[in-house]
Amino acid sequence: MMTPGDRQELDGVARRLSGEFAGTFSLETVEECVMDSFERLAATATVTGFLVILAERFARERLQALSKVGQKAGSSVPEILFVCVHNAGRSQMAAVLLDQLAHGSVHVRSAGSDPADSLNPAVVEAMSELGLDLGKEFPKPLTDEVVRAADVVITMGCGDACPLYPGKRYLDWELEDPAGQPLPTVRRIRDDIQDRVRALLAELAPAATRS
User: Fold this and answer.
1) How far apart are the first and last CA of the chain?
2) Where are the beta strands (DSSP E) in 74-199?
3) Exposed, middle or buried, 178 (CB in 10 Å: 0-12/13-18/19+)?
4) What pLDDT is attached to residue 136?
5) Domain with CATH 1.10.8.1060 in the chain
6) Domain 1-69 fold
7) What backbone phi and psi angles, to 5 degrees, belong to 79?
8) Where in the chain is the domain with CATH 3.40.50.2300?
9) Distance between CA atoms of 31 and 17, rounded to whole angstroms?
10) pTM for the complete prediction?
11) Is residue 142 predicted with pLDDT exceeding 90?
12) 59-71 pLDDT, tens per residue?
């Protein structure tokens, strides 16, 4: 539930983001996105102390995606979206691995059809073994604008939850869910995802795999 203090902080967030997106979105559009982002995250959160901070990051990502929709014709950087059920394991690993390997040659997002309130600790540990820090990541709900901004949408066990738009490439990766699995199993899932990500990158941005 949004408190008066939350509302005051969110008004400040909207003003900051409005400055970042000046000339692209009106203050009213930014405010709507900020409030909606807060409410979506609050719907699944069990710890609410950082909701305003996370809502700002989530709203910024949504606004960036929405701004890309109108620029698609001139964009040379592929937009990749990974979607799983909870956005707490598979899609987070895929997004971080691809971002690390791509060196900016693709832009990556992830989301969940039914997001959890936090990342899977075993997933965080397995990724840390590769020197990849998921400490700043958090589960995000799947929203329309991130799908519309994507060139390639890769689903991982989320069924028909992802909306379909013409002109996009949809892939489904059949991967075991790491939820509740021991660390050795999570490592195996991680390595499978890494192999798939390398193959995807070799197809989308061959130069990045040679750097």
Assistant:
1) 48
2) 79-84, 107-112, 152-156, 169-172
3) buried
4) 87
5) 1-69
6) Helicase, Ruva Protein; domain 3 (1.10.8)
7) -105, 120
8) 74-211
9) 9
10) 0.90
11) yes
12) 999 999 999 886 7
90-112: pLDDT as tens digits:
999 999 999 999 998 999 999 99
Number of helical (H) and strand (E) elements in the chain, helices listed first = 8, 4
Are 34 and 10 in contact by the 8 Å Cβ rule? The answer is: yes
Nearest to 136 by CA among 180, 92, 70: 92
The tokens for 151 are 């060139």
- Closest CA relative to residue 115, chosen from 148, 82, 145: 82
Count the neighbouring beta carbons within 10 Å of the beta carbon of residue 149: 24
Q: How remote is the C-alpha of 112 from its chain's centroid?
A: 8
pLDDT of 210 > 60? The answer is: no
CA 2 to centroid of chain Cα atoms:
24
In residues, how long is the chain?
211
Residue 128 CA to residue 172 CA, distance in Å, equals 26
The CATH fold assigned to 74-211 is: Rossmann fold (3.40.50)
Residue 77: which of 165, 173, 149 has the closest Cα?
149
pLDDT of amino acid 206: 75
Residue 209 has pLDDT above 90, yes or no: no
